[in-house]
Amino acid sequence: AQTVTQSQPEMSVQEAETVTLSCTYDTSESDYYLFWYKQPPSRQMILVIRQEAYKQQNATENRFSVNFQKAAKSFSLKISDSQLGDAAMYFCAYKGASGGGADGLTFGKGTHLIIQP
Amino acid sequence: DTAVSQTPKYLVTQMGNDKSIKCEQNLGHDTMYWYKQDSKKFLKIMFSYNNKELIINETVPNRFSPKSPDKAHLNLHINSLELGDSAVYFCASSQTPGQASSTDTQYFGPGTRLTVL
């Protein structure tokens, strides 16, 4: 079974600084997808960024970028120029590509990101 | 327009009751999911369903049952509610990989907070 590990239960960063959230995963599959979701206090799950395992290029969405290391099974999220609105729980998630499309996401336990003004 | 909607957003009920949570998506997706988020914020897949198959997480009690009247709806029925069922339940949807414009990304509803007294 796949597992996703987020080793940082909580992180704190000063506004405008850069922070990196860690995520590692375990799988025997060669093709899969990785995601970062944000959950603010409103509890809505918001997609931040996604990465296909077959793509070597790291995904980027504005201030959010990932460092995808397939051999190391690592998928960290970097947030540049942190803003107060970035404060939230961040979840790393995995989805295999071989399950026919109906597989659910496997989530890590989350990292609570605090932004200090 | 809300992409994935759930009703109700809050549900408070007594132990032993039967209740339902409704989910609708207007994204034209063909796969829908139910997730449970416990008090420690851990998210776990309960069911995934498309027009071909229902995949049930083996840890889900058979008191929980998904019902899909059509492709845009996947409702969650819970019989004989127990204290441990208290959680936030999320519905999500995605398009099966291989279909046109599929990104295999799951989009989440706002969640339903269920409290069993």
Structure notes:
- The complex is a heterodimer of chains A (117) and B (117).
- Chain A is mainly β and 117 residues long.
- In chain A, 0% of the residues lie in helices and 51% in strands.
- In chain A, the strands form three sheets. In chain A, strands 2, 5, 6, 10, 11 and 12 form a six-stranded mixed beta sheet that branches. Chain A has a four-stranded antiparallel beta sheet with strand order 3-9-8-7, with no helix packed on it. A two-stranded antiparallel sheet of chain A has the order 1-4.
- In chain A, strand 7 (60-61) and strand 8 (64-69) form a beta hairpin.
- Chain B has 117 residues and is mainly β.
- Chain B is 0% helix and 52% strand.
- Chain B has strands at 4-7, 10-13, 19-25, 31-37, 43-50, 54-56, 64-70, 73-78, 87-94, 107-108, 112-116.
- In chain B, the strands form two sheets. In chain B, strands 2, 4, 5, 6, 9, 10 and 11 form a seven-stranded mixed beta sheet that branches. Chain B has a four-stranded antiparallel beta sheet with strand order 1-3-8-7, with no helix packed on it.
- In chain B, a hairpin with a 2-residue loop joins strand 7 (64-70) and strand 8.
- The termini of chain B are far apart.
- The A-B interface holds A 33, 35, 37, 39, 42-47, 50, 89, 91, 95, 97, 100-107, 109-110 and B 31, 33, 35, 40-46, 48-50, 52-53, 55, 57, 88, 90, 92, 94, 96-98, 103-108, 110-111, 113.
Summarize the structure.
The complex is a heterodimer of chains A (117) and B (117). By secondary structure, chain A is mainly beta.
Short key terms for the protein model shown above:
heterodimer; A: 117 residues; mainly beta; six-stranded mixed beta sheet; four-stranded antiparallel beta sheet; globular; B: 117 residues; seven-stranded mixed beta sheet
